Fold:
Amino acid sequence: MPNRLRPLVAGNWKMNGLRRGLVEIAGLCAAVADGAAGAAEIVICPPATLLMKAAEICAGSLVRLGGQDCHVAPRGAFTGDVSAEMLRDAGAAYVILGHSERRTAHGETDERVRLKAAAALTAGLSPIVCVGESHAERRAGRTLAVVLAQLAGSLPEGVAGEDLIIAYEPVWAIGTGLTPTPGDIAEVHGALRHGLEGLLPGHAAEVRILYGGSVKPGNAAELMKVADVDGALVGGASLVCADFLAIASVYREAAL
Ligand code: PGA
Structure:
């Protein structure tokens, strides 16, 4: 059944955003405060450099913040890395982990993602764990095998369902304007839910499963109606307050 859970709409800014871009977050906070997106959980994941400033802007609003990655260790000699504890300290409540751009460009394995998710939970962050197949894997009919293997390999032991968010992001849909058909998304989300039942017996229904990959104001309503889609992970369209708000509002209206 779609949208039983409180929907979550997260914006992944990736490596975009200077201080002047914080105006988009301020606009979002003001709009959400007006009740424009109140019933859905709204999260922005800016670059780590903007987190503390963003946290000041979001204080007292309904908009929450997330990081885009974290190290497996809480601290130490890891030049250039950011720990989950640091993200939490800067004002984050969530962290995106295992995004395909990190799996591809930084060679992140499921095991590494699993350790990062455990570190996030220890620091008090909810991990948004990304899974998704490449175009070649889809063409080879391996989509479900790939995402279920990523799911099983990336989840830390003993995670509570309500603390966990999964994002299904087909690699070929990210930043391309392409999306799977609603039927294809329903098949993958259903398989992920079923996989979660095996991994977290009795708690699969508490896990929010987001769809990500070319979510835009124009297709958000159609994607939201798909069974087992509990929200969206939005890249490019999250950089502009009005577009992100339009997507969030679709979920808000459905949740009312
Ligand atoms: P996109 O990115 O919305 O720009 O396709 C989604 C993501 O990578 O999280």
About this structure: The CA atoms of residues 94 and 139 lie 33 Å apart. The first helix runs from residue 22 to 33. The beta strands are 8-12, 41-45, 63-67, 94-97, 126-131, 165-168, 208-212, 231-234.
